[in-house]
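From the methods appendix. Each design record in this collection lists the tokenized structure first, followed by the designed amino acid sequence. Records were kept in a plain field format so they could be parsed without special tools. The example shown here is representative of the layout used throughout.

RECORD:
FOLD TOKENS (242 positions):
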């Protein structure tokens, strides 16, 4: 019923809803979870308790300072030897839980946080800024931290500034109100950060998303509302610090 209603809404404005290749709809039956989610990757990694402690310490450091911690920082915070944390970071990178630069032994990013500025800035409590790797990650951060946040981004098509405020895990405000998100299903690439994250962006409205998709029709995925995208972020990242 919901799917048919959504399709009729698209027809009213003369658009065909962009869909996942093969007719799949990520919002159907699984609350928008995409394949190869962070939860699935963590499950496959079968991390030790120490590995999970390192993972959580990295995320906590990102939230506190808005930037990637060093291996030394994580080792000091946990009271662990440098070599133990280094080994854990390499395991996390192999599982595509963090983005890692092995030659410099540096943590670059840790889903959902980006260690370098992106189009998706997330303002945490006391206006501490951090960056998300994509629109879905930005929406997942408040769910993971249990904090109210304000997301500042841009429409991927026209570059108009957009704002999303989340409070209590719910959408408080979105500007413009017609905002939508592209949920990528691309599977190629060595990691999600390279394959999908650059594509999962905000758009002012369906017309702008459709105009962008017309320039790259080979991209598989689906468009979702901000409320639906928030559910995707919650499912992906909500339990990462529990």
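DESIGN:
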């Amino acid at each position: 019923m919901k799917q048919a209603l959504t399709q009729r809404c698209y027809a009213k404005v003369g658009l065909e809803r962009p869909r996942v290749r093969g007719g799949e709809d990520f919002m159907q039956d699984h609350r928008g979870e995409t394949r190869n989610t962070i939860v699935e990757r963590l499950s496959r990694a079968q991390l030790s308790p120490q590995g999970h402690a390192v993972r959580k310490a990295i995320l906590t450091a990102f939230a506190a300072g808005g930037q990637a911690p060093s291996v030394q920082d994580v080792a000091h915070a946990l009271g662990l030897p440098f070599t133990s944390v280094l080994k854990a970071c390499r395991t996390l990178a192999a599982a595509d839980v963090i983005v890692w630069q092995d030659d410099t032994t540096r943590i670059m990013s840790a889903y959902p946080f980006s260690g370098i500025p992106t189009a998706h800035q997330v303002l945490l409590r006391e206006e501490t800024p951090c960056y998300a790797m994509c629109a879905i990650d930005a929406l997942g951060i408040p769910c993971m931290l249990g904090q109210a946040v304000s997301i500042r981004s841009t429409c991927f098509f026209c570059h108009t500034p957009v704002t999303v405020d989340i409070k209590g895990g719910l959408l408080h405000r979105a500007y413009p109100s017609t905002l939508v998100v592209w949920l990528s299903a691309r599977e190629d690439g060595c990691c999600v950060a390279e394959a999908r994250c650059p594509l999962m962006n905000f758009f002012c409205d369906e017309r702008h998303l459709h105009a962008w998709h017309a320039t790259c029709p080979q991209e598989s995925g689906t468009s979702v509302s901000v409320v639906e995208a928030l559910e995707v972020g919650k499912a992906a990242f909500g339990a990462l610090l529990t």
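APPENDIX NOTE: The longest strand covers residues 161-167.
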